[in-house]
Amino acid sequence: MHAIKFEETQKSGKYKDGKYSSERIIEIGDMMKRDHQLAKDLIDQLLKSELPSVLSSTCVYALLVDYRTQEALETLKEIANGDNGITSVSAEVTIVLFNSGELFELHGIERYEK
After folding, report:
1. pTM above 0.85, yes or no
2. Residue 14 Rama label (left phi>0; alpha psi -120 to 50; beta)
């Protein structure tokens, strides 16, 4: 529900309307960073979405917990190369931050090591 609302606000440009949904998505993301199994379960489900902003956000957490990393990077590249407005820009920035290691710093976690 929150992901769909967030996607709608991204497309319409009514970003303030998506504030609550965005906050909820961040809360869920924080839970995923703490619980690796929860992250895997949610990522598996969310990567089935066709909504670019849902996929982009999901890929961030996939990268952070080192789960389905290659698939996440490929999905982000597709989104970045698409006509998805701010979501495309966000996907491109995520790739750059991941490659530099800054993505982990921004999320306050150490890079996951197997």
Report:
1. no
2. beta
